[in-house]
Amino acid sequence: MESISNSGTVVLPPSPHLTTSARRWARSIQISRHTRGAIRSAVGKLDKQMPSGQKPADENELFAVIELAALAHGEWVRIHPFAHGNGRVARIWANWVAIRYGLPPFIRIKPRPAGLLYQQAAHEGMDRAPGHRGDHTTTTKLFLDLLVNGP
What we know:
This protein is an all-alpha fold and 151 residues long. Helices cover 56% and strands 3% of the residues. It has a domain at 55-149. It is built from 6 helices and 2 strands.
C-alpha cells in the first residue's frame, strides 16, 4: 500500500510486481505544498467555525462544507496520483468532508455520476497551469445539486 511522506512524495513498499521505471514514476509524484496547504488551511478554518460532527447551522456553513468537498475532490483529480481509481478516491474524499461536518455522504463512489456536468466539472478542475488550483466552481454546484436532489 502506498503512503505519502511529509514532503508529498509517494512512498512504495517493496514489490516484485513493480518495474524500475514504474517505481521511478511513482516516486516522482508530488502533492504540491500549495494543494496540501490549501486543503489543510480550509479544514482548519472550517473547524474553527464549525467543529467536526456539527451540522451546518445555516446556508453559509453548508456552502463552506460543499466548497471544501469540491476542493478536496477536484485537487485529488487534478494531481492524479494513481493510474486507476483517482475519481473513486476523490469521491471518497468528498464524502469524508461531508460526514466530518455532519452531512450525509451525497456522491456515489461507483459508478461515477452520469452526465455532462460531472465531466465538465472534472475538466475545469484539472487546470494544470504552474501553481494553479483548478476551478472547482462547477463541482461545487454539482455537489449542492447532488446533496439536495440525490444522485
